Amino acid sequence: MSIFDISDSPNPVFLGAYNDGGNSYGVHGDDNYLCIADLVQGVELLDISNPQNPVEIDQYSNSAPHDLIYEQGYAYLADQDDEFLLIDLESSTTRTTTGTTDNPLQFISTILLVSGVCAIVIAILVILKKR
């Protein structure tokens, strides 16, 4: 996994990298934290406040996520075994999981909607930046 500064999108600047030896299927984060969905190793939470030196600060290995969304200390993941999990990553002693959803298609629809909105926002920002 590589970290780039894309504030000048035509000229991305490499900042740092993290290699857990696994396979990243999805990543999501904010300014300080990045979650990695690894089908084999589970969910990894990295502290990226110093992007030149990302550090793993937590891991939840009891899952097989294909993708995830990270929001304020929680990882919402599409898991191949349990369909949907909510994991509290801020507490190193307590992790909460919810079992399967009543309607997994609703969860998938939500993920696709969020992904689509993100793509639209990025496209708008690129267009505005070019003006």
Task: Characterize the structure shown.
- This protein is an alpha+beta fold.
- The protein has a single domain (2-102), classed as 6 Propeller (Neuraminidase), CATH 2.120.10.
- 21% of the residues lie in helices and 38% in strands.
- A hairpin with a 3-residue loop joins β4 (33-38) and β5.
- The longest helix is centred in the last third of the chain and has 27 residues, at 104-130.
Spans where pLDDT lies below 50 across 5 or more residues? 92-105
Q: What's the story with the biggest beta sheet?
A: 4 strands, antiparallel
**Structural class by secondary-structure content:** alpha+beta
Main β-sheet, spatial strand arrangement: 3-4-5-6
Look at the structure and name the CATH superfamily. Answer: TolB, C-terminal domain
Number of helices: 1
Helix content: 10-25%
Order of helices and strands: EEEEEEEEEH
Sheet-strand content, in percent, reads 35-45%
How many domains, in number, for the residues?
1
The shape, in one word, is: globular
Compute the CA-based radius of gyration. Answer: 16 Å
In whole angstroms, the N-to-C terminal distance is 31 Å
**What is the average per-residue confidence, as pLDDT, rounded to a whole number?**
74
By CATH, the architecture is named: 6 Propeller
- Number of extended strands: 9
Q: Which fold name corresponds to the CATH topology?
A: Neuraminidase
